[in-house]
Write a structure and sequence with these properties.
Helix content: over 70%
Number of domains: 1
CATH topology: Methane Monooxygenase Hydroxylase, Chain G, domain 1
Largest sheet: none
CATH class: Mainly Alpha
Number of helices: 6
Structural class: mainly alpha
Shape: elongated
Order of helices and strands: HHHHHH
């Protein structure tokens, strides 16, 4: 029973961390689109330290549980996957901060017309993280597989944004600096989507004990 309670506590902490990261993504994009400097600063100065503290706390909890209980089978898989997801969430938080930092530079400059495309990319990316969280909470393998399938949509959207920004920069050299910032924001969103896919793959491994990485065609 004690082991089960510890797993529940681990899951609760991971969900709290994932929800914080989800909010960081939301605020970084909203700050860009609405030119709300306060939201962007909040991501950098308030949310990032919280994310770092949660990452360290989860890592310590997992390490202590392995040392104390020497778990096996699904319990061990769950702890190992929580450790891995914890690391991925830390990287997502870093990407969110990168977006906020670039957005702070962009809102001081004339807007480029591709902000709508960035918003659409962000919506798909956020939905992937949100559904990854839900698949983890409910041990929903079907939803986790759907997240994995959405990764291609993000890649296509990023490629489209990249090509359009290259055209804009070629036609007007004054747009080069803001366009480069948007390219980096798109790249960070795409990396968050990749990490959300990893999250979903980890859920499938946790529930089924099946590794699907590099085997997407079997989905």
């Amino acid at each position: 029973m004690l082991e089960e309670e510890k797993i529940i506590n681990l899951k609760r902490e991971l969900i709290e961390y994932a929800t914080l990261v989800e909010g960081m993504i939301e605020k970084s994009i909203k700050g860009l689109l609405r030119k709300e400097k306060g939201l962007l600063i909040e991501v950098i100065e308030t949310d990032e330290p919280k994310a770092n503290d949660l990452e360290i706390k989860l890592d310590e909890m997992c390490t202590i549980m392995v040392a104390q209980y020497q778990p096996k089978a699904k319990v061990l898989r769950t702890i190992l996957m929580i450790l891995k997801i914890n690391n991925d969430l830390e990287r997502m938080a870093d990407h969110s901060v990168n977006i906020a930092e670039r957005s702070l530079l962009l809102i001081e400059r004339p807007q480029i017309k591709l902000l709508d495309d960035i918003q659409k990319l962000a919506e798909v990316t956020k939905s992937m993280l949100s559904d990854s969280i839900n698949s983890f909470v409910n041990e929903d393998v079907k939803l986790a597989k759907e997240v994995c399938e959405r990764d291609n949509v993000v890649d296509e959207s990023r490629d489209k944004i990249t090509m359009r920004l290259i055209d804009i920069m070629c036609s007007d050299c004054s747009t080069i600096e803001p366009s480069l910032h948007l390219l980096i924001i798109a790249r960070n969103l795409e990396r968050i989507a990749d990490l959300s896919t990893n999250f979903a793959e980890d859920v499938i491994f946790m529930v089924k004990g099946k590794v699907i990485k590099h085997q997407r065609e079997e989905l």
